[in-house]
């Protein structure tokens, strides 16, 4: 029987599977890569071959161009790679996101969660529990202070602020892949039917979500600042002169980090919205209890908190301290 | 409690004054009695609650949460009340929403011994944002950037009454202010129950020589403008109260003045520190402001004095409807203990040129300009334009180098509009202050472009810029300060000119600023 470390091990390029000869979410170009989802710190261009869900491959092509890799393969059902079988399972994080299960013929099954979320999200398939022996998890929000509120209630705060300040455009900072479309879908669910203006950097990914059958309602470019009342932009746009076209805007930011006031204040945010596409502490700890793996490995995030929780539970855990994945990237 | 928690959160993150007023007045309109009255009390600092110590809160959290997880979380959040609000474990059935009145009731009425259990039980029933609001009440620090005056202005916006009318009766009222809200929605005016109430003050507007020119000098009285704080001293029916110009009671810090208020009436004047005949600079007065009690040493080293310029009531008569000249005569006829209370002298003048000369060469540094008051007007609450003018001395200026910039809020979103500037100290530039205004919109755009082009380093929202641009900074005065690296704090600094023409090496030195002290 082979040991878990022989199936997956941390390397400088990221997680590597020796019996399969591939990396998972590699941080630099490698010959063969399995990609969990399309966020820029997990999905990078320049690999020899990429295996991912159809949507993740599409998203990579949108972001990096069709030549982002020499060869690509759609993950569809269990696949034999080298001496292991791999399968992709929905992660509930963003459109196309997947957990990757690596099953050797004779040895522990390793589940790599990628980033995942268990709160219902209309823009992607829901997270699925996958039986495993070794669970490799993120710990972005690995402290008990992180309990994300109902995202619809957060969106209703946004809508209430728009009613309170009808003359001030509301500018929501949201990551271009996933968060932006989720905020739009939430605003629709909260009853905001009027056109929503989007920053140019969001256009192609919003279009792709619509092509994939996700209803985002009427979207317009944010070129006419007089017209738009609700505008979405990548958070980095707030620091650029692009913002200057809006008169007296209310700066909002949709992120799990908005739980902590100092984070919101540091960014000069007037309306922090706690909307996250990661598991919060209750979901994270519930997942470890639900899956009951023999061992937990933590890729990145605030792992000290989760390590302590595992210690209190008597669950063997170890941090991989992978460098290169961002907290919640922009 | 949910609405109150939302209110505090929005206020804490909203920088703009108007936006704050909107949020506050909407809250006061939409919230039923008595909750809104308790909220108003919390914001105006009139809520007398049992104070909970940080150590007690930590102990309570320690009973519910693993110590190591708490320590990691506190490290991450950086604020104790916020950490506890977030980390407090949810209970399965917290029950119906707690009202602000209930929460305030717990903090007002619970005995010391029962308090820890009562707080824990309350935290069990609240959501995280409500918990934070409750803990802020319990620790006595709301920190939402709202002054008592701003809260009263918001209150005035909810109804037909002006803020002066509200301030006139404010001091006789108690939380949760039911008669006040009833009056604002059309009920009877609550009679000021307390003796020695505050009367809303009459304020002046700035004036320029060009604006003075067409006016007749004979219509005006002139006085020095003193650099102290405006106060109203009221001694009526055996009660003595000293109010700031917004109606806050500050008597506790000035027992020497209170003791000297041996009269029956309400008078208006400047609070100053005076040693013998010499009036000390504002910085000396500042040492006595904002205190709840005052020590003997400070009382002796910083003796306070009142310099009066108006009289509002005297021995039962309301003198406010009288013209200024008659009020002045009544003031001069009144007798005060000379050691502590004197009158601001009337400056003789015939033409505006005389005023220009007086303003240019005041006899004491604590004089910050001249006041011009129309002889024939009654005492009018508020800031009517015309009867009272202030013509301040020219500000001090210094040429400083722009060092850091931070982006603004609201109308200035996306613009680098908050600037830190410094002066030369040998070969180094030492930060000496921050300025947020003084420039035009066009200049703001130019400054923003300069910052973006010359950024050398970023610290979160702050950019450090190459030390290339000289700005002329105007300010009203200087105080020594242990909190500033330079040892000096400026009063009302603003950017008066951008010196695109001046090389940074020719900016002023720290010694120059110190010499202005």
From TrEMBL, chain B:
One GO biological process term: DNA recombination
Pfam families for this protein: DNA_ligase_A_C (PF04679), DNA_ligase_A_M (PF01068)
Annotated PROSITE patterns: DNA_LIGASE_A1, DNA_LIGASE_A3
Keywords tagged on the record: ATP-binding, Cell cycle, Cell division, DNA damage, DNA recombination, DNA repair, DNA replication, Ligase, Magnesium, Metal-binding, Nucleotide-binding
Domain of life of the source: Bacteria
Residue ranges occupied by any ATP-dependent DNA ligase family profile domain in the UniProt entry: 297-425
Regions crossing the membrane: none
EC number from the UniProt entry: 6.5.1.1
Name under which the protein is recorded: DNA ligase (ATP)
Organism: Paenirhodobacter populi
């Amino acid at each position: 029987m082979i040991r878990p470390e022989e199936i997956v091990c941390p390397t400088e390029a990221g997680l590597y599977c020796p019996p399969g000869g591939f990396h998972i979410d590699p941080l630099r170009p490698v010959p063969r890569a399995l990609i969990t989802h399309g966020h820029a710190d997990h999905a990078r261009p320049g690999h020899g071959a990429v295996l991912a869900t159809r949507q993740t491959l599409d998203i990579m092509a949108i972001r990096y161009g069709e030549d982002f890799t020499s060869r690509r393969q759609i993950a569809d059902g269990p696949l034999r790679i080298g001496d292991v079988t791999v399968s992709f399972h929905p992660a509930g994080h963003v459109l196309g996101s997947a957990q990757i299960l690596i099953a050797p013929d004779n040895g522990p099954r390793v589940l790599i969660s990628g980033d995942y979320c268990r709160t219902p999200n209309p823009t992607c398939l829901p997270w699925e529990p996958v039986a495993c022996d070794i669970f490799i998890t993120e710990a972005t929000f690995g402290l008990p202070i992180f309990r994300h509120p109902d995202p619809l209630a957060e969106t209703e705060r946004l809508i209430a602020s728009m009613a309170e300040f009808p003359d001030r455009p509301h500018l929501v900072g949201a990551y271009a892949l996933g968060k932006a479309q989720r905020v739009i879908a939430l605003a629709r669910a909260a009853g905001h039917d009027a056109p929503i203006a989007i920053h140019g950097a969001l256009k192609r990914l919003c279009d792709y979500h619509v092509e994939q059958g996700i209803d985002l309602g009427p979207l317009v470019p944010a070129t006419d600042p007089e017209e738009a009342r609700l505008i979405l932009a990548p958070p980095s746009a707030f620091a650029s002169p692009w913002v200057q076209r809006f008169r007296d805007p209310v700066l909002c930011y949709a992120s799990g980090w908005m739980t902590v006031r100092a984070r919101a204040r540091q960014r000069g945010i007037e309306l922090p919205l706690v909307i996250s596409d990661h598991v919060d502490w209750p979901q994270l700890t519930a997942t470890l209890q639900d899956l009951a793996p023999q061992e937990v490995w933590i890729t990145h995030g605030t792992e000290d908190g989760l390590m302590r929780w595992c210690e209190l539970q008597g669950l063997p855990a170890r941090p991989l301290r992978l460098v290169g994945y961002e907290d919640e990237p922009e | 409690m949910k609405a109150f928690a939302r209110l505090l959160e929005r206020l804490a993150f909203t920088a703009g004054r108007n936006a704050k007023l909107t949020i506050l007045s909407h809250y006061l309109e939409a919230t039923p009695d008595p909750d809104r009255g308790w909220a108003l009390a919390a914001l105006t600092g009139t809520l007398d609650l049992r104070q909970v110590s940080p150590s007690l809160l930590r102990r309570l959290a320690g009973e519910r949460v693993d110590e190591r997880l708490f320590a990691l979380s506190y490290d991450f959040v950086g604020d104790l009340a916020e950490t506890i609000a977030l980390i407090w474990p949810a209970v399965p059935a917290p029950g119906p929403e707690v009202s602000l009145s209930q929460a305030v009731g717990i903090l007002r009425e619970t005995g010391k011994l029962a308090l820890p259990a009562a707080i824990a039980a309350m935290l069990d029933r609240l959501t995280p944002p409500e918990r934070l609001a409750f803990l802020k009440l319990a620790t006595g620090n709301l920190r939402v950037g709202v002054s008592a005056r701003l809260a009263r202005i918001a209150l005035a916006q909810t109804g037909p009454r002006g803020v002066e009318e509200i301030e006139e009766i404010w001091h006789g009222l108690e939380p949760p202010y039911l008669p006040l809200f009833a009056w604002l929605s059309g009920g009877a005016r609550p009679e000021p129950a307390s003796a020695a109430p505050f009367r809303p003050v009459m304020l002046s507007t700035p004036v320029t020589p060009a604006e003075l020119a067409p006016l007749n000098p004979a219509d005006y009285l002139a006085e020095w403008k003193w650099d102290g704080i405006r106060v109203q001293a009221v001694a009526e029916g055996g009660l003595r109260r000293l109010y700031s110009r917004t109606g806050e009671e500050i008597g506790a810090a000035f027992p020497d003045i209170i003791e000297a208020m041996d009269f029956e009436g309400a008078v208006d004047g400047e609070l100053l520190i005076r040693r013998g005949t010499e009036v000390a600079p504002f910085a000396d007065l500042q040492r006595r402001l904002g205190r709840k009690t005052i020590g003997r040493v400070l009382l002796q080293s910083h003796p306070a004095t009142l310099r009066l310029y108006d009289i509002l009531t005297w021995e039962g008569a309301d003198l406010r409807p009288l013209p200024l000249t008659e009020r002045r005569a009544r003031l001069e006829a009144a007798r005060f203990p000379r050691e502590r209370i004197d009158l601001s002298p009337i400056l003789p003048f015939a033409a505006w040129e005389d005023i220009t000369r007086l303003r240019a060469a005041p006899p004491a540094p604590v004089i910050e300009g001249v006041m011009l008051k129309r002889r024939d007007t009654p005492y009018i609450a508020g800031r009517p334009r015309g009867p009272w003018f202030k013509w301040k001395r020219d500000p001090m200026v210094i040429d400083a180098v722009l060092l850091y910039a931070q982006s603004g809020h609201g109308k200035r979103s996306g613009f680098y509009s908050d600037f830190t500037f410094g002066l030369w100290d040998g070969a180094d530039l030492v930060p000496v202050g921050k300025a947020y205004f003084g420039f035009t919109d066009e200049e703001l755009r130019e400054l923003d472009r300069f910052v973006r082009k010359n950024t050398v380093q970023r610290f979160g929202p702050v950019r450090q810029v190459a030390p290339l641009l000289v700005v002329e900074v105007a300010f009203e005065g200087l105080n020594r300060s242990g909190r500033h690296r330079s040892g000096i704090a400026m009063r009302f600094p603003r950017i008066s000119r951008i010196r695109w023409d001046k090389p940074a090496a020719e900016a002023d030195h720290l010694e120059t600023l110190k010499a202005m002290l």
